[in-house]
Model the fold of this input.
Amino acid sequence: MTFALDARAAFVDPHRGFGRMVRELVPALMAQATDQLVLCVPAHAPCPPAWYPRAGKVLKLRRPPRGAWLFDGPAWAWTARRCRFSCLHLPAWGVPPGVPVPVVATFHDATPLLFPTGLSWWQRLRARQAVYSLRRATLVHTPSGFAKKQLAALLPQLEQHTTVIPHGVASRFAPVANPTQDYLLGVGGGEQHKNWQLLLELYTLPQASALPRLRLVGAVARQPSLRQWIAGRGLAGRVELLPEVTEETLLRLYQNALALVFPSRNEGFGLPALEAMACGCPVVAAQAGALPEVCGEAALLLSPQEPAPWLETLLALQANPQLRHSLRQRGLQRARSFTWERTAQGLLELYGEAARRASSQR
Done:
């Protein structure tokens, strides 16, 4: 069998959830299916050299920079027939019509449908089309039980064809012996559901002067409105924005933070929480989405509605070394149960099942 993975998200959206998933998943898949795996990458993207010797084949895809979704169906039809894939995994952007091979599609969450603020009417339409296009998939993968329930609410007929396979965390996310713990950390995108406004409001409360500075990392730090809000309330010295960081810098930020603060109202998985726990960083997260499922009892979970309880919890965490140590140990233990090797193994079994189902229907 030959399994193809659409790895374009690792290059097109490297800092979003599905881009990070693909980038971390590829080495684990290559280790377990060296001769069976075909990696489909953008034609003009610099492909990591390590991908070449381990993958059975690296296939360069040519798509126009604009309106690529219009061409994806015919392009995949031509590519799949030419390369004779046994199964194609599409981890982002839905399933185009006309794909002539079994498809495993990943559904991350229903966030664009539930929190459409900031999206144009066209983006909302495209998001809805992408979700409903999953009806064309042979099997669907979700990273959490929560995401599976969201999909079942939208498309009940897919529930019996959906399998939960959690994401993992790479071995490089590991703790240091003596973390500085002199800042709070927020990592993620700037979309409405990420709920960063709660943290900013928290830092305007008088008692927040006892907290260390807050570092916001990633796409959230590129939001002009957020910068204006921080400047308008005199928080420029208290909230630090880091829009572009290397993987090495992100690792150090996790390792040395007093806590990762994750107030998101909706997550299909919540990879930053898992990465932080693997680094020995205490996690304070919202009791929302898949975060309780991923964190278990290894994090402090709060309602994402009001900033005051978050401030109270963070002050208590700062003042209590024993609590920080307990969360550190529980987080490390919890993170050990999530590996990309297990994710890859589960997906390879799913690819095989999709190919067998398609074969039995011929």
